[in-house]
Amino acid sequence: MSSLLGWFAFRSFIRIMKGNVLKHQQDMIRSYILVVSAINLRILSFVFVSLFTWSGEHMYTTIAILSWLPFLLFYEVYVYFQTKK
Question: Concatenated DSSP letters for 2-52?
Answer without folding.
Answer: HHHHHHHHHHHHHHHHTT-HHHHHHHHHHHHHHHHHHHHHHHHHHHHHHH-
